Amino acid sequence: xxxxxxxxxxxxxxxxxxxxxxxxxxxxxxxxxxxxxxxxxxxxxxxxxxxxxxxxxxxxxxxxxxxxxxxxxxxxxxxxxxxxxxxxxxxxxxxxxxxxxxxxxxxxxxxxxxxxxxxxxxxxxxxxxxxxxxxxxxxxxxxxxxxxxxxxxxxxxxxxxxxxxxxxxxxxxxxxxxxxxxxxxxxxxxxxxxxxxxxxxxxxxxxxxxxxxxxxxxxxxxxxxxxxxxxxxxxxxxxxxxxxxxxxxxxxxxxxxxxxxxxxxxxxxxxxxxx
Length: 275
What we know:
The strands form two sheets. A five-stranded mixed β-sheet has the order 2-1-3-10-4, with helices on both faces. Strands 7-6-8-5-9 form a five-stranded mixed β-sheet, with helices on both faces. It has two domains: 31-111 and 227-273, Periplasmic binding protein-like II (D-Maltodextrin-Binding Protein, domain 2); 114-218, 3-Layer(aba) Sandwich (D-Maltodextrin-Binding Protein, domain 2). The protein contains eleven helices and ten strands. By secondary structure, it is α/β, with parallel strands linked by helices. The longest helix is centred in the N-terminal third of the chain and has 28 residues, at 2-29.
C-alpha cells in the first residue's frame, strides 16, 4: 500500500518544488531591454533616471541621443527604438498621427528652459528688471566678437527657441552672419566650452552642470514659446516590458523629482499628471 501512495506523493512534491522555483525566478525571466531615443539636452538627466529605474527593476535600457529632428528621421527610416523622449511636442505628435506611436502614450515629461552661456564672466546688470535685462542681452550679443552658438532651429527645438529669443530681441536678422549652428544643443554647448564661440544658447539644465570656467544667464521663458518635451511609446516598444515599465516610471513621483532637480521647469506632480 505504501508504494501505491508514495509515487503520487513524490510526483506532487516534485511539481510543488518546480512551481516554487519558477515563482522564485519569474522576476528575472520577465526582465527585458529597451532602447530609448533621447534629445541630447536631456541625456544627462536620463542617465540618472535610467540608473534609478534599473535599480528598481530587472530591466535594462540602451540610450541613444541626438537632436530630436535626427531621431525622428531615424524612426521614420526604421530605427529600432522603443521609446522617444523628444525636446518638443511636435515630433511625438507627428509619430502618433502617423501610426508609429502608441495612442494615448504621449505626455509632457519636462518643460525646458534656455540659457545664454559665456566663455567669460559678463557683468550682470543691476538692478535686473525686464527692460534692463533685455538691453543687457542685446548689448552683449551685439558687441561680443566671434560666433554665437546655437542649435539648428530646423533640427532642434532648443535651436528654434533660440531663434525666437533673437527675434524677440530684434537680432535674428542683424546677427545672421555671426551664428554658428550645431546639429544639437549639445554641440552648441561644445562650441562655447571649447572656445570656438565666446557665447551661445544652450539648455538651462546643461548650464547647471557646465564647466566652472563658463558662466550663464537664464533666458526669461516669455521670450520664446514653451519648450514642452514629450515622450511617446513607439510601436516597437508596445510589447516590450522594459519600455512599457519605463514609460510608466517617467510619469511617477521619483522621476518628477529627478527631472525638477536638473533644472527643468513646469514639472507636473505625478498625481496631477494622471488626472
